[in-house]
Amino acid sequence: MEKTILRGRAWVFGDDVDTDLIYHNKYLAETDPKKMPQYSFEYYPGKEHFAKEVKPGDFVVAGTNFGCGSSREHAVYCLKYAGIPVVLAENYSRIYYRNAINNGYPVLFIKGISQAIKDKKIEDGDELEVDLAKGEVKNVTKGTSFHGDAVADLEKDIMAAGGLIEYLKSRAGR
Amino acid sequence: MGKTMIHKIIERSAGREVKVGDRVWCKIDLSTARDFGGANCVLQFLDVTDRKGKVWDPSKIAFTFDLQAPAHSEKVAVNQKIIRDFAKDQGIEKVFDINWGIGQHVLLEHGHVKPGDVILGTDSHMNLLGAVGAFATGVGNTDIVASWFEGTNWFRVPETMKVTVTGRFAKGVCMRDLLTKIVGDLGADGMFFKAVEFGGETIEAASLADRITLCSMVTEMSGKVGLIMPNGEVLNWLVERAGEEVRDRVKALAADADAVYSDDLHFDVNRLEPMTSCPDAPDNVKRVRDVAGTAVDQVHIGSCSNGRFEDIEAAYKVLEAGRFKVSPKVRTIITPSTREVMRKCAAAGYIEKFLDAGIVFTNPTCSLCTAEHYGVLPSGDVGVSTTNRNFIGKVGKGSHTYLMSPMSAMATAVRGVITDPRDILG
Amino acid sequence: MGKTFAEKALGRAAGHEVKAGEIVTVEPDFCMSHDNSAPIARTFRKIGVKNVWKPERIVFILDHAVPAPSDDHAVNHKETRQFVAEQGITHFYDVSSKGGVCHQVMCEEGFALPGLIMIGSDSHTCTYGAFGAFSTGIGRSEMAAAWATGQIWFKVPESLKVTVKGSFRPGVAAKDLILTLIGDIKADGADYMSVEFHGPAIEAMSIAERMTLCNMGIEMGAKNAVCPPDAKVLAAIRDKARTDRWEALWADDDAVYAKELTYDLDNLVPCVAKPHTVDNYAAIDAVKGTPIHQAFLGSCTNARIEDLRAAAAILKGKEVAVRTIVIPASWKIYRQCMAEGLIETFLDAGCVIANPGCGPCMGNHEGILAPGEACISTANRNFKGRMGNKESFIYLASPLTVAASALKGEIADPREVL
């Protein structure tokens, strides 16, 4: 990983953020991943403006079970191609997790972030510093910090290859 | 030490011994995509193979059309064509076009699903095929494309949660109510990454439709798959469709008596009441009678969770008890899950009675559930539905939905306000 | 000098004798609108009149996309419901099994009656001429004005007399007659005119067949199209007429016509309208074998029980080769199909039987085409992009030809499968 320390603003979401909130049903017919960011979080109460205002480098911060619901990979693409470098959540729903890994899209498992969100220890617009390699998340605005685990096992290898397709291609080449 | 069903299924597919937590490469028995996600798979496959790729085994790939069947938007029409053209090019014959119905159900009816099969699909409710002991799971397009290369994909061997169900449902209460209760008790992440085995006398006596209902909602608790080994009539039905091999699979893959489970839960349904998932989350659960009297604008019966013949028949019985009249204040829509189900409803004379009551009976499809077809709710409307999700705005911006059983849904249609079906069934 | 039907109907409504070319202002007997009721209501509100002139003369029938397939459709329907409640409009066909395609519902629910002046915010409103009504499609602004004032002006049209004799040969249907006629006189051949169908063959036709003819009057530019209100019509409206304002009117034998044509059904062959105009006539022999991707049996033109029976007779016990969408024109017809076992026949043949409504006809529901795809359809328009995509192709034909083609996967001559 070329650049492991990232700085950006936080967009903060709660627990059980479902795929319809991340990327609604009604745009499922889209097949071009690069056109998907315009619909991100359109249905999330209070975050309807996300797609318009998000800047590349911003972070998505969420509680438990992020991405529960549908199998739509759109929900990963719409963040990846919006330039969100990593999702910082307590944990991820299983299909969302696979879809992220399969696209080489980094997700960190941040212990205690769900409660921290509820306690307002991390809020929209906070300046964060994220060390991807060490899994450290500093909330510069509030002076707090969190630790996150990156993926391990096979998922780590898939991530390192850049995604599942790249992983399979490199494995076939060996 | 004994093994659970998912443990045995993965070992069979991987061809080696495994333990919980292992990442293993499994052979895929069926890799399916719908008119949602299917075009994304095809385009990605063509892209990553420089348009020269051949799928590993055309007989193990299936396409189903249920998101918008028939298409109501140009984009979906194009996506469907992309799939048809690809299937033709690749020699894929299992294409179930717009006349067939909801994918998992159609595949099941056609005998393409056996216990122990490892099945992928672009549908998060793919895992309802666990109702016949298959390890089916919803995945994104990349997972599907990857499986088309060599017919394999990776899985983490999950822990297994055991859920034992005893007792008999009282009149007006059914499997959907149990499930709603389970979702309420365990929460949206109550089965996080786990496989679930459903057992006990209530499950052993349950119809295939009820088993499908139960397994379809494992997704709403973030579970991997809910498994029930076919027995009795369900086994006979499956053998008829998928062949004698089913019996051997059932023997080989049943859980060992000393299998180890991460959780052991028990539910008794004797005193269960009709339950509902209130807006705007499946785990926001109350008794139907706690919200009785709430005015609703639309009632929808159908979906992969509750669109089988038995579900529609249960609703029919409530309509019958309500003297075949629904409230004119409510728009009532019934969508059968498949052509076979619709055919059965026609033969039973139910469709005529529904129509006479003012109910819209649609062709088999995902219908309302995708918010792309029949019955999108306008802002401010309240809906009742037998589908599986009621997330914020899921079936229409600014609308709110109560999820419940076909009986409760029809009772609500009859009275025009949320109604406990026991009030009508007596 | 005798009078045409249009002169009689408009004269009756105006309360004085009129002749072609005059401008008259009349009160409409019924105003029909469909999913465009909500936008019309918005225009109505801008006029500044609080209430519609006569709520009992307004009929709303949701059919273009029901049940709603999108947020926009859902909100539009809700606005319609709110307007209905606010204005006390009694004739409202919401999402339920009581409705269907608006024109079919108008006819089977007893609104279409001889001699009435009927306007609709849909170009195929001319269908009600099958019941001897003077009916015509108008735009949304004009409809809003009609709700507000209870008045609409017309130029009394000149008339085209089409006399039809002989009888249909097997495999030939009313749709073939109207497509042949439009092919002959072209899309503007009856511009602004009132088209009158006369002759023994018309008298022999069912009301369903007459509806197919009148429905497509607009496709040759006509203001309205009409058949004689004979005993068949009177029998059909008995017990269900929504008003007693009706009167059986018909042209005098010595009426003066701008143009007269005669057709002999004995000489007619199955035909299609090729892409992308309705007047692009081709006899079946010229297009037989053209590959298709979809067949559509539906619409206000050709989805009545008689049409579906004819198609089912061809499909029974066989399987379609392309995706085939069957949409009965109303729930009454759907119900009749159930009773006669046609729904089972269609299901077993592999068709989709969708809920009654306009379906894919105007490209916003159930059966949109992709680029490069061809559809054979019983509907009334094959304009470029009509069914959803500019690069797709629509062939119009009779239910018999559509059913035969569905079986073969290419345009086929129904006479060969009968």
Question: Can you walk through the features of this model?
Answer:
The complex is a heterotrimer of chains A (174), B (426) and C (418). Chain A is α/β, with parallel strands linked by helices. Chain A has one domain: Alpha-Beta Barrel (Aconitase, domain 4). Chain A has helices at 19-22, 50-53, 74-80, 94-102, 113-118, 153-161, 164-173, and strands at residues 5-12, 59-62, 87-89, 107-110, 127-131, 136-139, 144-149. The longest helix of chain A is centred in the last third of the chain and has 10 residues, at 164-173. The two termini of chain A are 22 Å apart. Chain B has two domains: 5-267, Aconitase, domain 3, CATH 3.30.499.10; 278-425, Aconitase, domain 3. Chain B has helices at residues 5-14, 38-48, 74-90, 103-109, 141-150, 175-186, 201-204, 208-216, 232-242, 245-253, 288-291, 303-306, 309-321, 339-347, 350-356, 406-415, 422-425; strands spanning 23-27, 30-34, 61-64, 94-96, 118-121, 135-138, 152-156, 160-166, 195-199, 225-227, 263-268, 275-277, 285-287, 298-301, 331-334, 360-361, 382-385, 400-403. Chain B is built from 17 helices and 18 strands. Chain B is an alpha/beta fold. In chain B, α3 links the parallel β3 (61-64) and β4. In chain B, α2 (38-48) crosses α5 and α6 (175-186) runs parallel beside α8. Chain C folds into two domains: 5-242 and 256-263, Aconitase, domain 3 (2-Layer Sandwich); 273-416, Aconitase, domain 3 (2-Layer Sandwich), CATH 3.30.499.10. In chain C, 31% of the residues lie in helices and 17% in strands. Chain C is built from 14 helices and 18 strands. Chain C has helices at 5-14, 37-47, 71-87, 102-108, 140-149, 174-185, 200-204, 207-215, 231-237, 284-287, 305-315, 331-340, 342-348, 399-408; strands at residues 23-26, 30-33, 58-61, 91-93, 117-120, 134-137, 152-155, 159-165, 194-198, 224-226, 259-264, 271-273, 281-283, 294-297, 323-326, 352-353, 374-377, 393-396. The radius of gyration of chain C is 20 Å and the shape is globular. The relative contact order of chain C is 0.14. The mean pLDDT of chain C is 97. Chains B and C meet through α3, β15, α14, α15 and β16 of B and α3, β15, α12, α13 and β16 of C.
Can I get a quick summary?
Chain B is of the alpha/beta class. In chain B, 35% of the residues lie in helices and 18% in strands.
Summary tags:
heterotrimer, A: 174 residues, alpha/beta, Aconitase, domain 4, seven-stranded mixed barrel, 7 helices, 7 strands, 28% helix, 20% strand, globular, B: 426 residues, Aconitase, domain 3, 2 domains, five-stranded parallel beta sheet, 17 helices, 18 strands
